[in-house]
Amino acid sequence: MNNRFPTLYIPHGGGPCFFMEVQPGLPPDLWDRMAAYLRGIDASLGARPKAVLVISAHWEAPVPTVNVLARPPLLYDYYGFPEHTYRLTYAAPGSPALAARVRELLAKAGIASAEDSERGLDHGVFIPFKLIYPGADVPVVQLSLQQGLDPASHLAMGRALAPLRDEGVLIVGSGMSYHNLRELFNGADSRLAGEFDAWLAQAVVEPAGRDDSLSAWSEAPGARASHPRSEHLLPLMVAAGAAEGERGKRTYHEKLMGKAISGFQFG
Q: Which domain range does residue 29 map to?
C-alpha cells in the first residue's frame, strides 16, 4: 500500500443491530453479512491509520462542525432497543490535533466551520467502529453534515479534506445506500432500490463526471424511493469528493430484506 489512504462509504446498519438479537419475525442472519464486511475493513486496508475522520448521517449542523474532544463520550441516539444496548462502550480517543487540521483545511477552501466540545460520538460512528476497530485503539474524530444537505457542498467538503489522506487519516462516510425505513422491513423485493443501487455503483466508478452525477443523484432511477431524505447518502459525497480524480469501486453488496445495499471505496 502507498502512503495515501483510500476513502470509504460504509453502511452502519439499524441502531445497535450488531449487538442484539434480531427481532422476532426477521431473518436471524439479517445483519451478519454487513457485520462481516465491517469486521474485514481493517485487514483490507493493509495498514492502520493514525486516526479516522467519520462523517455520520446522524449529525447535521448549520456549518460543518467537528468534535474536538480528546475523550469523546457516546451518544445513544436510538430508541426502543434492549436496555443493554444503552450500556455499550467504545473508548476510542479523539484527536484535537486532527480536529484543528480539519478546520484549517476547510478554511483554506473557503468553507466556514465550527467546533463542538460536548456532543458524543453517535451510533453512526461507534456502532460500526466497534466492529472495524474493536480495540478502540485508533483515534476517532466526527465531522457533521451541513444542514440543507446540498450534495455539491459535501463534495466540496471532501475535496478540501483530501490532504488528510496523505497524513495518515482514513476518511469514512457512514450512512446507508438505501434508507427508506417505511419500506425496508416489509420484506418485499424492491425493483426501485435495485435500480438506484445499480445507478450508484456505476456513478462512483469513473472520476470523470462523478461530481455532476452525484450532485444530481435525486434524478436517478429509484432515487427518492431509496432516500426520501438524503442524510444517509450525503456521507458518500464527502468520501467521493476527497478522492477526486480517483476511481471508486463497490466493496460490499447484498439484498437486505429485498433492498439492495452497497458500500464503496475510493482511491
A: 7-266
How many structural domains are present in the chain? Answer: 1
Q: What is the pLDDT of residue 83?
A: 98
Is 1 inside any structural domain? no
Phi, psi dihedrals of residue 257, rounded to the nearest 5°? 55, 40
pLDDT higher than 50, residue 1: no
What is the DSSP pairing of strand 248-256 with strand 259-266? antiparallel
255, with CB counted inside 10 A (0-12, 13-18, 19+), is middle
- Write down the pTM of the prediction: 0.97
Convert the pLDDT of each residue in 112-151 to its tens digit: 999 999 999 999 999 999 999 999 999 999 999 999 999 9
Q: What is the CATH number of the domain that holds 130?
A: 3.40.830.10
Q: Tell me which residue has cell 462523478.
A: 210
Cell numbers given for 135: 480495540
